[in-house]
Amino acid sequence: MDHLIERIIGAEAAVDICDNSVVKRRVAKKYRTTEIDTKLRKERTRLEAKIQSEARRAGVPTPIIRAVDGFEITMERIQGSAVRFSISETIAEQIGEMLCALHQAGIVHGDPTTRNMIFSSGKVFLIDFGLACYDASVEARGVDVHVFFQALEASHENFISMKRAFILGYARRCPDAQQILDKVEEIKRRGRYL
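and the corresponding C-alpha cells:
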C-alpha cells in the first residue's frame, strides 16, 4: 500500500504525494451551484489528464497517468528535485527544448514555472497541467514563455544566463522561435503600461 508522504492544498486541487504515486483531486467550489461545479470539475479533470498524456506522446517528459476517476487523477510519482532548487544553464536549455516540444504539439502549459518541473535521472519533467490548454497561436505560446521568464526572474539570481540558455534550447527546436520571442517582448512592453 502506498503511504502518504505529503498533502498539498491549492486553490484548485488537493494533491497527495505518496511513495509511488501522486493523486490530484479537484476541490469543490462553494460559490458555484452543485450541478455546475460537478460538471466543470469532471470536464477539467478529464481535459488535464488528456493534455498531459498528449504532451508525453509529443516527447515532453511528464508523469504517466494511471487512472482518471471523477475529479481525481492518479499518476506516477517522479522521484527527483524541484527544478527551482537545482536549475542550471544546462537544465534551463533543456526546459527551452521541452517547452518548444509542448508548443509544437499545439499545447500551452499555462504555468510553466520552475515549481512545476522536477529534475530526475538527467531530465526535466513537466507537472501540473491544471491550467494547460490547446492553443497553437503565437500569442499563447508567447505568454507561456513570458510566464516562465517572469518566474525565473523573480526567483533565480542568475536570471540572465538562465534566460539565454532557455532561448538557446527553445530556438534549437522551434522553427518559429524568433516570432515567439518577439511576441514575448511585445507582451512585456504591454505589461508596463497596464
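(Above: one complete record from the training split.) The beta strands are 4-9, 13-18, 21-26, 65-69, 72-76, 81-82, 107-108, 117-120, 123-126, 133-134.
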